[in-house]
Amino acid sequence: RACATRRTFERNDAKKYVPSTTVVHRAGRSAMGACASVCVRASGTRREHWDGKFVFNPKFDAGAVVFDGYYDTDGEGKRSLTRDAIRRWAMEVQGESEGDAEALAERALGSVAPGTTVSLKRAMKLAVVTASNFPMMHTEVDDEEMKDEMPQYFINSSHNTYLMGDQLFSRSGTQAIKRALVSGCRVIELDVYDGRNGPIVTHGGTAVRPMLFEDAIKCVNTYGHVASRYPVIVTLENHATRPQRLVMARIMKEVFGEKLWYPANGKDHVMSKWPSPFELKDKVIIRDKMHHKQDVQGALAKTIDTVKNALSFGTKSKRSIVNEGSSTSPGHSLMESSITESKFNRRKSETSNSLPDSAPQGEADSSDYDSDTDESDPDKSGVPDIVTIQNAKFKSFKEAQTVSSKFSCSWSENKVKKKLASEKEKTIIEFTSRHLLRTYPGGQRVLSNNYDPSPAWSVGASLVALNFQAEDRYIWANAAKFAMNGGCGYVKKPAYLRDPTISRPIQPRILRVHVYAGIGWDNFKDADYLTAPDSLIKISVYGCVADRHALVGPHKSKRTSIYQDQRTGPRAQPIWDESFDIEIREPELSALQFSAMDRDGSRDEFLAHYDVPVAGLRTGIRVVPMVAPNGSYVHDHKSCAGVLCRFTWIDDAYYVARSPTIDPGATVKPGADSDDDVC
After folding, report:
1. How does pLDDT run across 129-155, given as a tens digit for each residue?
2. 437 phi and psi angles, rounded to 5 deg
3. Contact criterion met (CB below 8 Å) for 644 and 508
4. Cβ neighbours of residue 149 under 8 Å, at least 6 residues apart?
5. CB under 8 Å to 59, separation ≥6 — which residues?
6. What span, in angstroms and rounded, lies between the C-alpha atoms of 255 and 454?
7. 351: how many CB neighbours lie within 10 A of its CB?
8. Is residue 603 a contact partner of residue 675, using CB atoms and an 8 Å limit?
9. What is the mean pLDDT of residues 38-56?
10. Which has the closest alpha carbon to 417: 461, 481, 477?
């Protein structure tokens, strides 16, 4: 198998055994090398809180560097900070408000006499090397910003959410769905097929073990609004036949109850205006096609069988038919069969592949082959009656502009590349600002690895679906993006992606990142089997194509020099003391990714990472925590690993004048990142 799952089994309420641990990808582990394994081992159990214990390399005077110009030295050489000095440092260096600066001084000194001071080491522990000093600012959901139509937002989306591992040999499970939901994902994809005892969820045409559709829906109902109150979208790749789709509709109505929201007039609804996320708080909505090809194929097969039976009967009774003067003949019947099939195929094409002028796909009259409703029982309504987001086949941008209804469609990553290469950026943005575009990984990604979401985000695709079971740099960038807005899973697009008449920014600002030194590097002592790791920090930009293109050098990243000394102890803590200037044109889209790497011969082995959205970046001197692929802080029994950095915005006309104009709509060329398989 391409994926190995380490399983400990727990018995749940339904008396079924489900795996309760995470998936370890052999392919990913191999690509990331032994260092990744070391990182996971070092992290041990998942630690939610970052331990502030620290030791810097004795050659790096951290306190003097951080508080330079603010501390005093007495006659005995002792260095300390006054309350006023801490307050001024917090405002002038860290960019904190006066109230926050005063709170920091209060935390460092408490309610003591005005002349009392605090040592540099204590100030470092309370104000610098602490989880409260991470680069990511605290954000909360702004309900007033959640009242626009849904295409005005990026929505945290997953692909084949039910898969515990790879796309071919893994299993479907509620643990995968739960993991996505509790991490903030708002779009859950389920591939549904007929099962012996009701509809099932599995990856068709593979060896993936299925799960019951009902179990998947119950999982969504239980965990859908744990991380966020904003709506969950269940998008269906629906291969079930009509009888089982009736069962699906019943299950969703019974399980979701009042949480399930859909238009009052069901499948006859024309979406002239999308509901807002605020309107759909605590709700679940369904995304599906209104017509399904299996119905067309089934009806066509039934028609052909009828014609064949008539042909057989005509052949057997040929003599009597001729004697009766009938004009019917086998040749004529065969011709009728051909005509019938041709008409049916044409009808299928017209109803399945086009968008009517005034309604989304599915409004054409097709009751003879595609009704999910049992007319004999009004209570037995089908899936189309509870669909809110109608998934239509995209034909052309011109057609999408002329229809009065709004719809959703899906493009593979390969189709995204083709559209970006052949269409004007403004044309695509006009489409994504009105309709819901979903993108998903290409079929070649059988190991559940991900594609770069930057091109799709850069043209306003709302639902950029990624494989959440993967532990790779693209899923980390996605997590950073959706950490904004209180982590609710909905992030408002910048104005130029909501309104195509607004020009997108082309002149960059310069973000200067100074990488000082590392702490807790004993955690990586086993990265190399014989010597200490050859450590470096790589800084990359994801989310915005223009900002990613602006990074020059190997692998589109900035890199420190290599540090190597001892495996453990104070001298194992690296010192870099290097600055990098990064051009940022679109802070609302871009995210910084810090990767700790071990240089192993001609390639870099992954150690740990940290991602932060540029829009949520705090300036000043910050500690960047090192995070393992599984999302836990890298730590041992002594301390967590981290990197001391300073972030400063440089508004310098020299940089603006020398910066080239980058095409924001350009795509990253395949192969531009030769280390795509590293992390």
Report:
1. 999 999 999 999 999 999 999 999 999
2. -95, 130
3. no
4. 273, 274, 275, 276
5. 575
6. 36
7. 20
8. yes
9. 58
10. 461
Structure tokens at 675: 């280390």
The DSSP 8-state label assigned to residue 675 in this structure reads T
DSSP codes joined into one string, 601-645: TTEEEEEEEEEEEGGGBPPEEEEEE-B-TTSSBPB-SS-B-EEEE
Residue 204 identity:
G
**CA 649 from centroid of its chain's CA atoms:** 28
Residue 400 to residue 405: CA distance in whole angstroms: 9
SS (H, E, C) 175-226: HHHHHHHHCCCCEEEEEEECCCCCCEECCCCCCCECEEHHHHHHHHHHHCCC
Residue 212 CA, chain-centre distance (Å), reads 25
Beta strands in 239-386 (DSSP E): 284-288
Structure tokens at 649: 């915005």
What is the rounded CA–CA span in Å between residue 115 and residue 159?
60
Nearest Cα residue to 621 out of 117, 124, 25, 40 = 124
**Identity at 483, one-letter amino acid code:** A
**Pair of tokens at residue 438:** 């979903």
Residue bearing the bigger pLDDT, 265 or 545: 545
Residue 272: helix, strand or coil by DSSP?
Answer: coil
Largest separation between any pair of C-alpha atoms in the chain: 129
Q: How far apart are CA 644 and CA 78, in angstroms?
A: 23
In 335-400, which ranges are E strands?
A: 387-390
Cα distance from N-terminal residue to C-terminal residue, the chain: 21
Quote the tokens at residue 601: 């011969």
Read off the pLDDT of residues 156-211 as tens digits, 9 standing for 90 and up: 999 999 999 999 999 999 999 999 999 999 999 999 999 999 999 999 999 999 99
DSSP state of 229: S
Amino acid at 420: L
pLDDT tens digits for range 463-481 = 999 999 998 999 999 999 9
Contacts of 118 (CB under 8 A, 6+ apart): 80, 81, 86, 108, 109, 126
449 φ, ψ (degrees, to nearest 5)? -80, 170
What token pair was written down for 411? 């493009």
Q: Give the residues across from 402 on adjacent strands.
A: none
> To which H or E segment does residue 477 belong?
helix 473-481
Residue among 469, 402, 407 nearest 432 (CA): 407
Radius of gyration of the chain (CA): 30
Strands 463-466 and 436-440: parallel
Indicate the pairing of strand 591-600 with strand 603-613.
Answer: antiparallel
Beta bridge partners of 548: none
**Is the backbone of residue 330 left (phi > 0), alpha (psi -120 to 50) or beta?**
alpha
CA-CA distance, 346 to 69, in Å (whole number)?
79
The count of other CB atoms within 10 Å of the CB of residue 312 is: 12
